Amino acid sequence: MVSYAALTERNAVDDAIAEFDRLGRDAFLEKYGFGEAKEYFLVTERGRYDSKAIFGAAYERQHGTRLGPSDFNGGKNGAAGRLAQLGYTVEGLESAAGRLSFAVFADAMAEFKPPIANAHAIHAFMADKDFQEFYIPASRPYIAMISRGGNRPSAWIHRGFITHRKEDGTWDEIALPENRLRDGGGMRQRRREESDSRTCSTPGCGMVLPPSGVCDNC
Question: Mind listing the pLDDT tens digit for each residue in 122-145?
Answer without folding.
Answer: 999 999 999 999 998 877 888 999
